[in-house]
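quick one, 336 residues, struct below
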Amino acid sequence: MFQRFKSHFIRQSAAQKKSSALPPETIRDCQGYFQPQSVDELLATPQRRQYLQQLWQNSALPEGLYQRFYLAPIKQLLGSVQQVPATPEGDWSGAGGFADLTLQFTTCAVRLAKGHLLPPGVAPETQAAQSVLWQAVVFWAALFYHLPLLRQLEGELDDGHFWQPGVCNPGNPFRFRFRTPENALTVPQEALLAASLLPEKAIMWLVSVPEAWHCLMLHLNGCPSSVPLIDALLQDAAGQVHSPWVKQAVLPTAAETAQTSEADARPETQSAAPATAMKSPSPSTADDTRTLLSLFQSNDEVSLLVNANENDSDLKISKRTGRPSENVAPAGNESP
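---
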């Protein structure tokens, strides 16, 4: 029943420039089954390694937490989707299109968010205490943004068992196809998939700030965000990467949303600040870091690490040298 999809990945098109560098025929057998690849193999392309490097450079997490909260969910998601496309046609229809789209989009959203103070419209001390968490909310919202595209796919293992892309690593050789309209999933599965990707400690961190938890849950349920700036950032990123999943609602741009939030929070006696004020360096995140690290370390370890980072606004001493940390961005290393 998968015959009409056997030629899908053989056709060469300009759109495949955005997909994996691995030729589809090298990972598929004569019966149309793809051999499952390890996460290291899936992340081995220069393009995907570049996305990870950019994500690391724009993240606000210390290295160990970046591995747990950012890199581990990425690896889990890519293992569960393998080289499936994001769309049946268009820019992201090539082999690995879904993984490439997700990585490029997520990296773009995190980069855009770095230029804004989050959450907007609150006191500076609140931003200082919560900014790292809200940057992570943007990352997770971006990572989960294209999960609805997986509804259109269904797969089969070579032993005859059903495989749903995005749920788990196939384990066995697999093949897949796009669902017909009459066979389309009628119940969203995104919340379940996202829940499986969120680390337990990350959930603990999110629920420590109910507003952040509520914001992410609204996003997963397809509702407008409680922080419009985050919706605007995601919309901007979707436009930049030519995402096929651009929400239909017309939202203000991230710059317009940030300026409005700043104006709403400003006392009436103050004069209007220029729009560039929202892109000023972030306040100290020592309080946020102390809360986050307390989930993993003893009080003494937390004090030592926070004190070491108080003078480093991006929380990464290793980034000062300009040389990437060897066990963060490269795809060949596993999360600790």
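The chain is about 45% helix and 5% strand.
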